[in-house]
Design goal:
Blueprint: E1 2-4, H1 10-22, E2 26-30, E3 42-46, H2 52-58, E4 64-67, H3 75-89, E5 93-97, H4 111-126, E6 130-135, H5 146-152, E7 154-157, H6 170-182, E8 189-193, H7 201-212, E9 217-220, H8 223-232, H9 237-251, H10 261-266, H11 273-279
Length: 286
């Protein structure tokens, strides 16, 4: 049995989808199954990281697990609780979603990577066989601006044309996760997962225009304005400041590299941004 956490999220959902296609026995850990359409053939365990008893119940009979946590101030404590429960349950392989650069020294200046670095150490020290997936930014993050793209033909960010990122489709992350969970030989490995090319938001506007068949424009807005809007929309200040740190990193070009791991593991090139847009044509107003 394979347990998938974050089953209603971007990579957890993609991992669940890939595993069910392979016919693997899967159990999904969810907080509220009534708010989620349960895929056929998937077991459901109700629980969350703050409830150790629910984790113990969810992990009964589980041999392998996919672990993804939310980016919050409590992430280290929450995922550490799951790692401890997995150890109690005798899980034989833990695949954990990390982040690109989590293995690099000096990541303390960017809280997201710093938390992942701590959690990678927690997993190593637990004694559980592990695999780390270290992806770049998700293409799916652009779904957050689907309304303005569909209605106005624009999307907004604080990134300059110099900020290029090799964004990855979450479907590729899910496919890699499923492969590492169902095939031998991935224990003790860390994989860097990127898309096939580095793109600025201006480049992405051009990709949208090509696929949607109408002009799409990227509008760069000052960081202060973006921060104010996000806070007004209810985003926690900790996360907003963390995103500002991430965007500052993007401006340096540090997230522009293209790694070979996706193509090497899956046997085909990583999905392109055009592939992603085609999958969501209606959502983007195509």
């Amino acid at each position: 049995m394979i347990l998938v956490t974050g089953a209603t999220g971007k990579t957890g959902g993609a991992t669940l989808q890939a595993l069910t296609k392979l016919g693997a026995p899967v159990r999904a850990l969810v907080r509220d199954p009534n708010k989620w359409h349960v895929p056929e053939g998937v077991e459901v365990a109700v629980g969350h990281f703050e409830d150790p008893a629910s984790l113990d119940a969810a992990l009964q009979g589980v041999e392998k697990a996919y672990l993804v946590g939310a980016s919050t101030e409590q992430q280290v404590e929450q995922e550490s609780a799951f790692v401890a429960a997995a150890r109690r349950a005798g899980v034989r392989h833990l695949v954990r979603l990390s982040v690109i650069g989590a293995d690099q020294p000096g990541v303390g200046a960017m809280r997201f990577a710093a938390y992942h670095q701590i959690l990678e150490r927690v997993v190593r020290e637990s004694g559980l066989p592990w695999t780390f997936l270290r992806p770049n930014g998700f293409m799916q993050n652009y779904l957050g601006q689907a309304q303005s793209l569909a209605q106005q033909g624009v999307f907004y960010s604080s990134l300059s044309p110099a900020a290029k990122v090799s964004h990855i489709d979450a479907l590729d992350i899910g496919a890699v996760a499923a492969k590492t969970l169902t095939e031998p030989g991935h224990e003790g490995q860390a994989y860097t997962l990127t898309g096939p090319e580095p793109l600025s938001d201006d480049d992405i506007a051009a990709r949208f225009s090509t696929v949607l068949g109408r002009p799409i424009k990227h509008i760069q807005v000052p960081l202060a304005g973006t921060r104010e809007t996000m806070l007004a929309n209810g985003f926690p200040a900790w996360n907003v400041d963390g995103l500002a740190e991430l965007w500052a990193l993007y401006e340096t070009g540090a997230a522009a590299g293209v790694a070979p791991d996706v193509e090497r593991l899956l046997g085909h090139p990583a999905r392109s941004f055009e592939d992603f847009v085609r999958d969501h044509l209606t959502t983007f107003g195509g």
